[in-house]
């Protein structure tokens, strides 16, 4: 069940700056015109839960602005962050298509604008438009690839610094949206970064300080800029 929010008319998908860099929403003008009439746009505060692990799916969620944390929880209460969703990402595709419960919980990391499309409305749209179905399949394939790369980072990165570098590069590339400069707002706490990198919060703090001393990154408030892409990439490889 979606949280209470300020609801307004669906966004103009044709004006979205993220559309061309995100597979799912990059539809032909005719299909996109119909797509932007679906669902409702919602503006949500930080800490809003979009859906919960093991809940039945009510529909897909498209992140129009802001960042969303996807995570799962063990019976002992341990949290594993699976992904940080950014503008243009589609959440809940697998649960909608399979009819199975959500495998993760989705929670906003900062104020977000999202678009929620009910399950039946979305499935009917896919039946009408083969192009949308193909884009959905490609989006699921990209989601699988992302999950694989995350698992590879945790299992094969030779050092903690390499794992932290890999997380920062992923955030930077996703936020850059094709721009050469990798500057982004760090909405994650050091604890969140530690979870993604498979290490402790204290180690992340020390590693980020080391990266700053070596001029690999620059941090000012919540803004982070990657200064040396090549060296970070070498660390992460």
Task: Provide a descriptive summary of the structure in words.
The chain is an alpha+beta fold. Helices cover 41% and strands 23% of the residues. It is built from 8 helices and 12 strands. Strand 5 (68-73) and strand 6 (79-85) form a beta hairpin. The termini are far apart.
TL;DR?
The protein has 237 residues and is of the alpha+beta class. The protein has helices at 29-35, 93-98, 119-128, 130-156, 160-176, 190-197, 201-213, 229-236; strands spanning 6-8, 40-44, 49-51, 59-65, 68-73, 79-85, 90-91, 105-108, 112-118, 183-185, 217-220, 223-226. The radius of gyration is 18 Å and the shape is globular.
Q: Number of folding domains? A: 2
CATH superfamily of the largest domain: Jelly Rolls
Mean pLDDT: 86
CATH topology descriptor of the largest domain: Jelly Rolls
Principal-axis shape equals: globular
- Give me the Rg, rounded: 18 Å
Percentage of residues assigned to helices:
40-55%
**What are the low-pLDDT stretches, counting only 5+ consecutive residues below 50?**
none
CATH architecture of the largest domain: Sandwich
The CATH class of the largest domain turns out to be Mainly Beta
Present the secondary structure layout.
Elements: E1 6-8, H1 29-35, E2 40-44, E3 49-51, E4 59-65, E5 68-73, E6 79-85, E7 90-91, H2 93-98, E8 105-108, E9 112-118, H3 119-128, H4 130-156, H5 160-176, E10 183-185, H6 190-197, H7 201-213, E11 217-220, E12 223-226, H8 229-236
Antiparallel strand pairs: 1-2, 2-9, 3-8, 4-7, 4-9, 5-6, 5-8, 10-12, 11-12
